[in-house]
TrEMBL record:
The protein, known as: ABC transporter ATP-binding protein
Positions of the ABC transporter domain: 8-256
Keywords: ATP-binding, Nucleotide-binding, Transport
GO molecular function: ATP binding; ATP hydrolysis activity; L-isoleucine transmembrane transporter activity; L-phenylalanine transmembrane transporter activity; L-valine transmembrane transporter activity
Any Pfam family: ABC_tran
Recorded coiled-coil stretches: none
InterPro entries: AAA+_ATPase (IPR003593), ABC_AA/LPS_Transport (IPR051120), ABC_transporter-like_ATP-bd (IPR003439), BCA_ABC_TP_C (IPR032823), P-loop_NTPase (IPR027417)
Keyword Membrane: no
Length: 258
């Protein structure tokens, strides 16, 4: 089982599709309140690893342990309820709903009645609406999104949509956030703002953050540790400085960036 201070542990995990091993005997652990990055070339198995953690795929062999509980065989919604939330490379907001409604929808764990009743500020939903709205606004204020609360999500600038998706993941109450290429499509200014948000989530909210990212400035700037995959296998693990100077990583990945 996972060590007491490990929030997540992959134990000799493999995922096979036919004769193709998307993930091959991968092991690593992640501590509470840690920022861990998963990097590697396209096709290295990064997204497959996320899918194994979130229940989209079931490991062919090995175990995924979260808070000393085995996730193998659990459905995505069960894993979400256990305290893991995920964002996606392709933004998946409810674009016709407002920014505030997107956060309220994510707060299922705090509601005593269903989502639609909790949006009605009268009748049986009044008290619930006020309670959930107050908490949702706190999340938006934390992410500097409160001024956009009444705007439809589809009308947010792209960088703000990225921030809203992270804010929505926070609103689930998760202890572990999985961020799939959160800087994809962002300009340097937006990426810098994103880095600040991720750092603050760790510092202020004591969350563990696990991210896939190709932006090496972001990865090297915020990560406590980095795991590197290549062709489904783990080829390195260590601090940003250790990874930056690792010959195997330079050959497989970093050297291709320069």
């Amino acid at each position: 089982m996972a060590a007491d201070n490990n929030i997540l542990e992959l134990q000799n995990v493999s995922l096979t599709f036919g004769g193709l091993k998307a993930v091959s005997d991968v092991s690593f652990s992640m501590k509470d309140n840690e920022i861990l990055s998963l990097i590697g070339p396209n096709g290295a198995g990064k997204t497959s690893t996320f899918n194994l953690i979130t229940g989209v795929y079931t490991p062919t062999s090995g175990n995924v342990i979260f808070k000393n509980k085995n996730l193998k065989g659990k459905k995505p919604h069960q894993i979400t309820n256990m305290g893991i939330a995920r964002t996606f490379q392709n933004i998946r907001l409810f674009k016709q709903l407002t920014v505030l409604e997107n956060i309220i929808l994510a707060m299922d764990h705090t509601r005593n009645i269903n989502f639609f009743l909790s949006l009605i500020p009268f009748g049986p939903g009044k008290n619930e609406y006020e309670k959930v709205k107050t908490q949702a606004l706190k999340y938006l204020e934390y992410a500097n999104l409160a001024e956009y609360q009444h705007l439809k999500a589809e009308n947010l600038p792209y960088g703000k949509q990225r921030e809203l998706e992270i804010c929505r993941a926070l609103a689930t109450g998760a202890d572990l956030l999985l961020l799939d290429e959160p800087a994809a499509g962002l300009n340097p200014s937006e990426t810098s703002a994103l880095m600040d948000i991720i750092r603050n989530i760790k510092k202020d909210l004591n969350k563990a953050i696990f991210l896939i990212e190709h932006d090496m400035k972001l990865v090297m700037g915020i990560s406590d540790r980095i795991v590197v995959l290549d062709y489904g296998k783990k080829i390195a693990e260590g601090s940003p400085e250790e990874i930056r100077n690792n010959p195997s990583v330079i050959q497989a990945y970093l050297g291709k960036e320069g």
